[in-house]
């Protein structure tokens, strides 16, 4: 049963957009840029643009769905309402798996940058501590979490602008050749990984019932946050590969900090390191926001145990959900491998974004969709392209990532069937 205490609408357009940017700009640009550069070479800039274009197609589907179905849970709620309860569960399940794994990866990325400043503390210990801190912050309310996130977002955007401004004067042309050492295959493999870095644009849709005027605010925030981050990602990745050879970036746990060091300015490296810590902290914070709200929505629909849906009487947060996902993320961070968890998270992200495009297509069969007050153009081209692009990206992921993701999906299906049998008997 749903708890009698309701969530509270407190977030405006700035808060919502900030949550989107906070969820996007983090491990993707500060950590995964190096991994992707190892695949795409200097053409990682093309990987960023391709991945951003693909994300934009799906973002339009999220925008129109959030305008029509402004409910807590985002992609989970859309699939549940437009496809079927089972489809909704699978989307929610993959969302939870993806973001718990992503949160672990982000905490490790955060810890790698903190270790630059405090090398005597083990990376895993820092990652665990970070997970605990952001879990506690989330318990105190969405408004409080949003205010913390707003400050972190402003800081990390300023740091990226500083990195680009300083780095542009120290670019080395020879670092940009060969442009595609692994050909277009490498570029698309890099794009498949970087898609993980854009995945946060949908985070704001998970808190729809805590947003003022969600039918207009959420679509605007989704598109604004993605557009801003595409510009930041493109310019930042170009600066990084221009400063440091792509092979060196690929082997680094803190690629942007190493790139800043190549300018010969130790202050620049320090600022970027602090910016990376701020950025990844912000992503970690919003990751728990999204995880707890999706599990809350699933509990409300009786697809997860009822305690996930309990809301704190004072803070108006789904506190048990926050604690459970925080603990799960902390445990995973204690033994996760960055490259592997990023790939697995990308598989799950691509799957539930593909389903969101299907939801948008089904919505268009019912009514002429809108994004806020505007009719959606080129009916139904965008969700079809979004669906096709997601399917194509899956084939550029590593085989073991697809296998592990498929096992997770099968486990989710088995749980759903078992729970439904128990529910029927009771």
Q: Main sheet?
A: 2 strands, antiparallel
Termini distance? 14 Å
Q: What is the SS-derived class?
A: mainly alpha
Query: What is the string of helix and strand elements?
Result: HHHHHHHHHHHHHHEEHH
CATH topology: Amino acid/polyamine transporter I
Oligomer: single chain
What is the percentage of strand-forming residues?
Answer: under 5%
> What is the number of helical segments per DSSP (H or I, 4+ residues)?
16
Instruction: Give the strand tally.
Output: 2
| Unreliable parts | none
- With strands numbered from the N-terminus, the spatial order across the biggest sheet is 1-2
Write out the CATH superfamily name: Amino acid/polyamine transporter I
Q: In percent, how helical is the residue content? A: over 70%
Shape: globular
Classified by CATH, the class is: Mainly Alpha
Our Rg estimate from Cα atoms comes to 20 Å
CATH architecture: Up-down Bundle
Integer tally of domains: 1
Mean pLDDT: 83
């Amino acid at each position: 049963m749903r708890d009698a205490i309701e969530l509270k609408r407190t977030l405006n357009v700035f808060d919502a957009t900030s949550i989107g940017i906070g969820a996007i700009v983090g491990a993707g640009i500060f950590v995964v840029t190096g991994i992707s550069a190892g695949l795409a070479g200097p053409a990682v800039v093309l990987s960023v643009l391709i991945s951003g274009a693909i994300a934009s197609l799906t973002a339009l589907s999220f925008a129109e769905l959030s305008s029509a179905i402004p409910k807590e849970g985002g992609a989970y709620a859309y699939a549940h309402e437009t496809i079927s309860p089972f489809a909704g569960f699978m989307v929610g399940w993959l969302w939870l798996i993806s973001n718990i794994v992503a949160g672990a990866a982000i905490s490790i990325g955060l810890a790698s940058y903190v270790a630059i400043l405090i090398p005597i503390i083990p990376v895993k210990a820092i990652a665990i501590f970070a997970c605990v801190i952001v879990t506690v912050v989330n318990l105190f309310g969405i408004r409080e979490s949003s205010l913390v996130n707003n400050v972190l977002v402003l800081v990390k955007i300023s740091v990226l602008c500083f990195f680009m401004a300083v780095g542009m004067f120290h670019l080395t042309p020879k670092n940009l050749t060969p442009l595609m050492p692994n050909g277009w295959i490498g570029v698309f493999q890099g794009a498949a990984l970087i898609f993980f870095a854009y995945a946060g644009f949908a985070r704001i849709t998970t808190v729809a019932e805590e947003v003022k005027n969600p039918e207009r605010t959420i679509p605007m925030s989704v598109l604004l946050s993605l557009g801003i981050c595409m510009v930041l990602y493109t310019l930042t990745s170009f600066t990084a590969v221009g400063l440091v050879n792509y092979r060196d970036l690929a082997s680094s746990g803190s690629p942007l900090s190493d790139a800043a060091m190549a300018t010969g300015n130790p202050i620049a490296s320090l600022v970027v390191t602090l910016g990376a810590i701020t950025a990844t902290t912000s992503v970690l914070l919003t990751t728990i926001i999204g995880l707890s709200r999706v599990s809350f929505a699933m509990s409300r629909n009786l697809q997860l145990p009822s305690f996930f849906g309990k809301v704190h009487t004072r803070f108006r947060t789904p506190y048990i959900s926050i604690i459970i996902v925080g603990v799960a993320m902390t445990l995973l961070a204690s033994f996760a491998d960055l490259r592997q968890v990023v790939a697995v998270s990308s598989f799950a992200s691509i799957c539930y974004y593909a389903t969101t495009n299907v939801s948008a297509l089904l919505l268009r069969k019912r009514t002429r969709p809108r994004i806020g007050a505007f009719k959606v153009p080129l009916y139904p081209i965008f969700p079809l392209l979004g669906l096709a692009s997601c399917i194509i990206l899956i084939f550029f992921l590593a085989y073991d990532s697809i296998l592990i993701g498929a096992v997770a999906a099968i486990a989710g299906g088995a749980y759903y069937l078992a729970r439904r049998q128990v529910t029927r008997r009771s």
